[in-house]
Amino acid sequence: MTEYLININEAAQYFYKYPQPPKAGLIAPTEVPGIGNDIDETKIEKETKLR
């Protein structure tokens, strides 16, 4: 069971290569190996290192 906050999760998943939006109220696992939280570097405009 998971809670999917539409406004927050769509923004948080913007940088993912494989976002996982719910379909028919369910969130399916990705078909790629791992948990699917790979970053899509083409969506990054500027990289700033944080302390």
Gap between N and C termini, in Å? 35 Å
Along the chain, the helix and strand elements come as H
Low-pLDDT residue spans: none
Q: Looking at the structure, what is the overall shape?
A: globular
Number of strands: 0
Query: Portion of residues in helices?
Result: 10-25%
Work out the helix count: 1
Q: Could you describe the largest sheet, including whether it forms a barrel?
A: none
Give the percentage of residues in beta strands.
Answer: under 5%
Integer average pLDDT: 79
Based on CA atoms alone, the radius of gyration comes out at 13 Å
- Which class of secondary structure composition applies to the elements? little secondary structure
Oligomerization: single chain
Give a verbal description of the structure:
This protein has one helix and no strands. The protein has 51 residues and is low in regular secondary structure.
Label this structure with key terms:
14% helix, globular, 1 helix, single chain, 51 residues, little secondary structure
Topology:
Blueprint: H1 6-12
Outline:
This protein has about 50 residues and is mostly loops.
